[in-house]
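INFO  loader      accepted 1 record
INFO  loader      residues=392
INFO  predictor   begin
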Amino acid sequence: MNELELKYGCNPNQKPSRIFMADGSDLPITVLNGKPGYINFLDAFNGWQLVKELKQATGLPAATSFKHVSPAGAAVGLPLSEVERKIYWVDDLGDLSPLASAYARARGADRMSSFGDFISLSDVCDVDTAKLIKREVSDGVIAPGYEPEALEILKAKKKGNYNVIQIDPAYVPAPVETKQVYGISFEQGRNELHIDDALFENIVTENKELPEQAKIDLIIAMITLKYTQSNSVCYVKDGQAIGIGAGQQSRIHCTRLAGSKADNWYLRQCPKVLDLQFLDNIGRADRDNSIDLYIGEDYMDVLADGAWEKIFKVKPEVFTREEKRAWLDGMQNVALGSDAFFPFGDNVERAHKSGVKYIAQPGGSIRDDNVIDTCNKYGMTMCFTGIRLFHH
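INFO  predictor   done
INFO  writer      dumping tokens
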């Protein structure tokens, strides 16, 4: 099959729409269920590249949760702690396969942003992963294959309309890519940059310590950024992205946005949040929204009289700013990647508030000395990669 007609493009008024191979070859994908749309395929193909590279770089199964052509989360298949199982709502599922653990992490990093996601999996989708996907609000999944029982589980999702795509893992795209804007064709060489720990050899700070786990986390950060709409910054801890700031015009806004998401991820692990007593009939999405409000500045939206009774069995105490700051001070050894250089030390100051210890960024700012001095003030390790990772 050389081309696939789509219902419409980015919006319903944009017709006709299709995906096709300009060289006349067959498409490297097969739609096993549903009818994916234009944006679904953009998410699927970007996400597939991300997880394929994560698997190649780490040797571990990888998953990503995409929304609007940027990852909301990405992770490799490391075992989940008991706390992580609780905050990702998978503590009732028993032991998960490595691939299912990867998706639980990718989905769980920023559950609000992942609502209605498109999933990419590096490995054949197993039953554990399919059961996890079945219970989440999602638009579709792409993987190199599906176990028969897993495929049947996914086909039953969304009243039989769930999008399931199989991609040929051996497919190699052309070395030059093109696209059109306003009827004008753009052409460039594909970004084939290979990301591994050799990228982090130029350590420019006084602290030269870079443990193996930090190298893995920086690899995950940089590969994630490679497929995130720029400007972008990514915080990573223990094998998963915990905060991604995408598509911001200002670098500091990227750092703040990603940092606030990383903070929310860690605040959800506080006993005060874990012990929230929800009504039995509260759905998963409503629980996520309520937690986000509870740990944020608009907590009275869920704690006011007349509001909390619709969500909780018992009215929670206010999670004070002082309590939150005290808990966040326990977040340590976080890795951070940036797709372009930090122009000011304020980015490092903000990163420090979210426990960042290791940083990888291109370098090359006229204020590199200021950025390095700020890292030294906090004992951070920072690498200059010399490589920019813009993605548009």
